[in-house]
Amino acid sequence: MIPYGHQSISDSDIKEVVKALKSDYLTQGPKILEFEKALANYCGAKYAVVCSNGTAALYLAYLAAGISKGDEVITTPNTFVATSNMLIAVGARPVFCDIRLDTYNLDEEKIESLITKKTKAIVPVHFAGYPCEMDQIRKIAKKHNLLVIEDACHALGAIYKNKRIGSISDMTVFSFHPVKSITTGEGGAILTNSKDYYERLLSLRSHGSVKDPRKMSRNEGPWYYEFQELSGNYRITDLQCALGISQLGRLDKFIAARTKIAAYYFKKLNDFSPVILPAGGRNSRSGWHLFVIRVKKSRRKKIFDKLRQAGIGVQVHYIPVYCQPFYRNNGFKSLKLANTEKYYAECISLPIFPGLRIKDQNYVIRTLKKLAYEPKEL
Known about the structure:
Elements: E1 2-3, H1 11-21, H2 30-43, E2 47-51, H3 54-64, E3 72-75, H4 82-89, E4 93-96, E5 119-123, H5 134-143, E6 147-151, E7 159-160, E8 163-164, E9 171-175, E10 188-192, H6 195-205, E11 209-210, E12 226-227, H7 238-248, H8 251-269, E13 284-285, E14 291-294, H9 297-309, E15 312-313, H10 325-328, H11 338-346, E16 347-350, H12 358-372
Parallel strand pairs: 1-15, 3-4, 3-5, 5-6, 6-9
Antiparallel strand pairs: 2-10, 7-8, 7-13, 9-10, 11-12, 14-16
Helix pairs in contact: 1-7, 2-7, 3-4, 3-6, 8-12, 9-12
């Protein structure tokens, strides 16, 4: 089976993990800060806080931002459920904005109509690695005094108008799951330019602990620390960070490989009318986490099933979040967003990852064309 995504692990990655395994620290050691500094430097942000996974990163970012019970947060339904699940976890209510039918990101033109007195933040998701229209989103946020927290779990290495994703908003969240731009096995990060957010994130990552005497209610001695708010253990290990540092050194090569694969799909499928291709470059560079095509709704399941039967591990990204039973049973029973519904009924994610061989990509293209071909009526 050709998977839709796959990690790329080198001998140097393995050596770095083994070195960390033989060191004095397996967790809470120097590799964590080293990875954070490298990540912040790469993205052009002042601070990075790495943690156990992308879901934890979202949760910590929402907590640090002060999002809580009674708040509303505007986001997209075309995302993995973690984006909105963690809003619910902190007590907030997600408000789903319909998407564009070119980039499949939330439609920035529809955001303002959803803003109420309860709105606290906007959480744009850079779907498939393609950046949202951040200038307009930030303009709307500034006008209404809202926070912007980017879910960039697909978009490490992506660029928006000459700025790397991770350097633009109040906070930006990344994931290091094996199918993402780089991997630490599991892992996540929050990037910010705010010292206040940075310090709070560090505390929240480790049970809400405070060790700085200047911030404690009292100081009983060198051993003393305090837990000033409720949190949990969202730490990452030195082993994972050693892998992350090694992977980060090859990120640009990974993005170049993904971009080359995407370009080849465009070249071979551009004139094939039964398939609708994703948006191209414009003012942004995609991280090409996913390559999503659209086909006729009436034929999508058949094409999908036949591709799977042919050994091609296509996938659907995503079932609209509001369609999930939990959401249907908790206030979203009647919600339907036109573009989201249309996109979901037609989308198929094709394989794209740095190690995808040209012969395998050609096989994907040939098989897709055979299955999706529609002879014209005479």
